[in-house]
């Protein structure tokens, strides 16, 4: 009798384990999740001192305090190999990711964002914004 219960329980255990395994594989086929990418290019004034250019990173650090974002990254243009499709004439870029358009909207009118623009806008000559819907696997 003990052997019969062992076999029965083992079969049940294998069935449960295989179900868990198959559901784990099923989870790898999740639908893509969308987020919003807010990508901004800045061209700083050519007459700025090295110290003024370095101080511009304070703009990004202030924006990083806005809570509606998922992530924030920034940096200068990379000195990549010149090609017809590459435009690295900008001084800095900013990439902010949001859960949805509502959170981007909150960011756009947030007092920290508006105050940072007022504080640093004298340093740039041009700004270009690209907002995109990103698909994540």
TrEMBL record:
Residues 1-26 form the signal peptide. PROSITE patterns: S_R_A_B_BARREL. Keywords: Signal. Pfam families: Dabb (PF07876). Residues 36-132 form the Stress-response A/B barrel domain. InterPro entries: Dabb (IPR013097), Dimeric_a/b-barrel (IPR011008), TAT_signal_bac_arc (IPR019546). NCBIfam families: TAT_signal_seq. This is Dabb family protein.
């Amino acid at each position: 009798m003990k052997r019969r219960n062992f076999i029965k329980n083992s079969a049940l255990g294998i069935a449960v384990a295989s179900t868990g395994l198959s559901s784990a594989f099923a989870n790898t086929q999740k639908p893509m999740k969308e987020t919003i990418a807010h990508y901004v290019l800045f061209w700083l004034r050519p007459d700025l001192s090295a110290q003024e250019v370095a101080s511009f990173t304070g703009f990004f650090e202030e924006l990083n305090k806005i809570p509606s974002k998922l992530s924030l990254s920034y940096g200068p243009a990379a000195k990549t190999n010149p090609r017809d499709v590459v435009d690295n004439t900008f001084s800095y870029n900013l990439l902010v990711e949001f859960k949805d358009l509502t959170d981007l909207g909150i960011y756009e009118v947030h007092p920290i964002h508006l105050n940072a623009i007022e504080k640093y806008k004298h340093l740039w000559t041009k700004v270009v914004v690209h907002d995109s819907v990103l698909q994540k696997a």
